[in-house]
Amino acid sequence: MRDLDELFAALGRSEFRRRFQLGTKEAAYLREKGLDVVLAHARDFVEKRLAPAEPAQDGRQTPMRNHPVFIAQHATATCCRGCLEKWHGIRKGRPLSDREVLYVVAVLERWLVRQQTQ
Hints:
Layout: H1 4-12, H2 15-18, H3 24-33, H4 35-50, H5 68-75, H6 81-88, H7 98-116
Helix pairs in contact: 4-7
């Protein structure tokens, strides 16, 4: 797992990761539901779609739109186990620990908070 300041600096240098921003629909959803509810969704998505050792459809399990967490996952390279390994140093082929799940949710929270202030 990486230091979040270092991670976000690296993400900021990636043209692909920088292009992700909340759309009108996702930003409205975040405003309406609030950060706490959206983060609860994030934890649920991470636990179900990312935490298993061999997630179903790994590499394609995270949609590209329709929820602020999905956009955040692509922006922060927390969308699949391959990106988690490459960007965050979290090895594939084993379940995520509770600590790693909390780390991923913290990464998503930081990105979502930044989106709220832009």
